[in-house]
Amino acid sequence: MTIEKVDFYYFSGTGNTLLVVEKMEETFKKNGVDVELHKIEDSDPLKINLEQTIGIAFPVVILSTYHFVSDFIHSLPPTNGTKIFMVDTLGGVSGGIVGPLREIVKKKGYNPIGAKEIQMPLNIFYVEDEKTNQKKVQKGLNEAHKYALTILNGESEWGRVPVLSDAINLISRGALKLADADFHQKLFIFDPEPEKCRKCGICVELCPVGNIQMADDEYPKHGLNCEYCLRCVSLCPRHAMPARFNYKGKTYRAVKAKEIMH
Ligand SMILES: Cc1cc2nc3c(=O)[nH]c(=O)nc-3n(C[C@H](O)[C@H](O)[C@H](O)COP(=O)(O)O)c2cc1C
């Protein structure tokens, strides 16, 4: 199977998925394949180039993924055989999200050539020590490299676990709906600590769904549309946004804010 160019669409909250995408980009390029990276949050699915191979990358979230990532995939235009592959990163268990996604893209006429789930450090609830996380990142990037090679030599696969993965996907959608509810959003709203926050506005720029506003000389304020990607919490240069649901408030980031924003 010849691949000349990959248009790689990705979302990354705290940097794990970005590192995986960059590793795969490096491997593709070393093998003569042109790669263009696109942020899902800035991309219009209807404008993708159906002549190229499409890559999709995202983190696993409550056994599924973020709404705007799902919406992007659901809104891909119909086609006739455009090659598509996906990769997700996760801290533990995915629930088999690759299965339902395969059905969606297949129904639209894509040729699903590969799917891979790559373990990376968990970025929520319990953040492990730096050495352990570094090891996980190295292992994950090694897998990303190997996965990119299997895509190039035609050996990658996009399997599915019927029924079970569909059932888990349904449960996950229920949990995500709960996370959207106003009462949940108010209960877990992120608030900066005034003694640490310098009102630099980086969190406003980082938020992929425009949920953070900052009026002149005010502290940043979250609305009620948080997707809990943790960018604002984990990438704040002054750690001014407390991670209330993380053990001992410890945060994780694989990259710095400017690398996510470039
Ligand atoms: C709100 C939220 C929910 C998550 N749910 C899951 C999950 O269900 N299963 C899992 O294995 N990891 C879960 N994770 C961990 C992330 O998928 C994992 O750390 C991922 O590599 C983060 O990628 P990123 O740094 O590109 O955002 C969750 C993380 C967040 C922030």
Give a short synopsis of this structure.
This protein is 36% helix and 15% strand. It contains 9 helices and 7 strands, in the order E-H-E-E-H-E-H-E-H-H-H-H-E-E-H-H. The longest helix is centred in the middle third of the chain and has 23 residues.
Structure explained in plain terms:
The chain folds into two domains: 5-168, Rossmann fold (3-Layer(aba) Sandwich), CATH 3.40.50; 185-261, Alpha-Beta Plaits (2-Layer Sandwich). The protein is globular. The strands form two sheets. Strands 2-1-3-4-5 form a five-stranded parallel beta sheet, with helices on both faces. It is α/β, with parallel strands linked by helices and 262 residues long. It has helices at 16-30, 67-74, 98-107, 130-152, 164-180, 182-187, 202-206, 231-235, 257-261, and strands at residues 5-10, 34-39, 53-59, 83-90, 111-119, 212-213, 221-222. The two termini are 32 Å apart. Flavin mononucleotide binds next to helix 1 and strand 4.
Question: Secondary structure elements and their pairing?
Answer:
Blueprint: E1 5-10, H1 16-30, E2 34-39, E3 53-59, H2 67-74, E4 83-90, H3 98-107, E5 111-119, H4 130-152, H5 164-180, H6 182-187, H7 202-206, E6 212-213, E7 221-222, H8 231-235, H9 257-261
Parallel strand pairs: 1-2, 1-3, 3-4, 4-5
Antiparallel strand pairs: 6-7
Helix pairs in contact: 1-4
Bound molecules: flavin mononucleotide.
